[in-house]
Specification:
binds adenosine-5'-diphosphate; binds magnesium ion; alpha+beta; nine-stranded mixed sheet
């Protein structure tokens, strides 16, 4: 890695490096929960999606949802990870009002997915981040503290929803890398359809582990874990705050306590929540209600065959086949919907123009209107028509921009706009010659100046000719004719 691009915090006499590892909780895309048939729909009335299993009524038994298992294995494959043919569900015991069972069913010693990796595209080159494991677990309910000053309310709709906990190795070194890592994970899971990655709805949250060490040191420092951060921006702010807090302690010759902290988004600071509990505090033991989970090689291979082309592979193909730059390919593959749109547009039109129009004009409109590409006001079909009109010389690039402005209002067919508004490019040399003659006649003084060496005036003539043609003149032809007339 290029040293200049590292995130380094400097103090008077020392330089520090930040070490970060993430435990990402990704909600499995699934109609029903991990061990019950209750719905997982977001935003329903509190406690309307709670089965007797989710509410831990006596005698209720969990039944594994095969679809969630499949989703976890697919995600593992997307993370180029080891899929474990045997995994075990354990009980992680603790008390909280939103956890009616008194334990969370999770996987501890034997997770369903083992080591894997994710590649990040950083400005200083590719960066590999190790994946430690991925395990399946239940989400807890939600305690609501801000409705009433004296009471806490509990909503169990989330209770029992399937989560994938994806644990990274402590390989991340900066807030930028954390940003790229979360986005890459989300992109992979969206391609796979295993997690929608919607951070506002809590489908993707992370515990952020942070430590610091003097630059060049081989040993890791003591880490703190910042719990349940639900936006990339907050993760980045929390890391910067926490790293500086720890460095202050080190500089003062003090110890760092290994603890669990909270990020206060209003004050932009982390606060101690509790000293870090050890695994043995949770009294993990295999859940006697659930058999070990076994999957066959055949099953894993069948899922491998179902995996779609993922962002890294798609990017490689786009670069090789379409000669896109790495930068362009990145933009087009990072979001599955964008890549689909792009591939639809180029089915019948020019790749280079499509790349420019999508990453330029279209993205500008989407940004401005705050729309996803799936909500694009211009369909892929109509954009490819517009590109073909440019390509075959029917319209100029400039006119295309005017037409595009029209297309935004109700996804109109560009061909129709061209016809209705008479915007067809003038490519008839005779017609162009006529209007160029007129421009020359009207500007005899400028012609003299040009001929006596003021080359810069050429642009003026082109401009006048374009204006005379109401923007419809074919620019290449105008250039050619003008050159002949003025230089001849
Ligand atoms: P636990 O299960 O107690 O939270 P793990 O060993 O599973 O502990 O690690 C949890 C996370 O902490 C992992 O993402 C790992 O990469 C990260 N981590 C471990 N050591 C450090 C460290 N010294 N600094 C920063 N992150 C770390
Ligand atoms: Mg942890």
């Amino acid at each position: 890695m290029d040293k200049d691009n590292q995130f380094i915090i400097e103090r008077e006499n020392n330089k520090y490096e930040v070490v970060i590892g993430l435990e990402v909780h990704a909600q499995v895309t699934s109609q029903s929960k991990l061990f019950s048939s209750s719905s997982t729909k977001f935003g329903s009335e509190p406690n309307t999606q709670v089965s007797l299993v989710d509410a831990a009524f006596p005698g209720m038994l969990p039944v594994i949802n095969e679809f969630c298992v499949k989703q976890a294995i697919k995600t593992g494959i997307g993370l180029k990870a080891q899929i474990n043919k045997k995994s075990v569900f354990d009980r992680k015991n603790y008390f909280y009002a939103d956890l009616p069972q008194g334990y969370q069913i999770s996987q501890y010693k034997y997770p369903i997915v083992g080591e894997g990796k994710v590649i990040l595209d950083m400005p200083y080159g590719p960066k590999e981040v190790g994946i430690e494991r991925l395990h399946l677990e239940q989400d807890a309910g939600k305690s609501i503290h801000d409705i009433d000053p004296n009471n806490t309310f509990v909503d169990l709709n989330r209770s029992g929803v399937a989560l994938m906990e994806i644990v990274s190795k402590p390989d991340l070194r900066s807030p930028d890398e954390v940003n790229a890592y979360i986005k890459k994970l989300r992109s992979i899971m969206r391609y796979l359809g295993t997690c929608d990655g919607n951070m506002q709805e809590g489908s993707l949250r992370a515990d952020v582990n942070v430590s610091v060490r003097k630059l060049g040191s081989k040993d890791f420092g003591t880490r703190c874990e910042i719990k349940n951060v639900n936006s990339i921006k907050f993760m980045q702010q929390a890391i910067v705050y926490e790293a500086n807090r720890q460095i202050d302690l080190v500089e003062d010759g003090k110890e760092i306590d290994q603890e669990t902290r909270l990020f206060d988004t209003k004050k932009n600071e982390t606060r101690s929540m509790r000293s870090k509990e050890d695994a043995h505090d949770y009294r993990y033991f295999p859940d006697p209600d659930l058999l070990p989970l076994e999957v066959s090689d055949d099953y894993i291979n069948q899922l491998k065959n179902e995996i779609p082309e993922l962002p890294d592979e798609k990017k490689k193909r786009f670069i090789e086949k379409f000669e896109l730059s790495s930068y362009e390919a990145n933009i087009l593959v990072s979001d599955i919907e964008t890549s689909k749109y792009f591939e639809e547009v180029i089915k019948n039109s020019d790749v280079k123009l499509a790349t420019n129009w999508i990453t330029g004009e279209l993205f500008a409109v989407l940004n401005e209107k705050n729309l996803e590409i799936s909500e694009s006001p211009v369909s892929s079909n109509n954009l490819s028509k517009l590109i073909n009109l440019i390509k075959d010389g029917t319209i100029s690039g400039k006119i295309a921009k005017t037409i595009f402005e029209e297309m935004i209002n109700g996804d109109q067919d560009p061909q129709k706009i061209v016809e209705e508004k008479g915007l067809k490019q003038e490519s008839d040399p005779k017609a162009l010659e006529e209007l160029i003659d007129k421009v020359i006649m009207n500007n005899t003084d400028k012609v003299e100046e040009y001929k006596s060496g003021k080359d810069k005036l050429f642009g003026f003539f082109v401009g006048q000719a374009m204006k005379e043609s109401k923007g419809k003149g074919n620019p290449q032809l105008i250039n050619k004719i003008l050159k002949n007339k003025l230089n001849g």
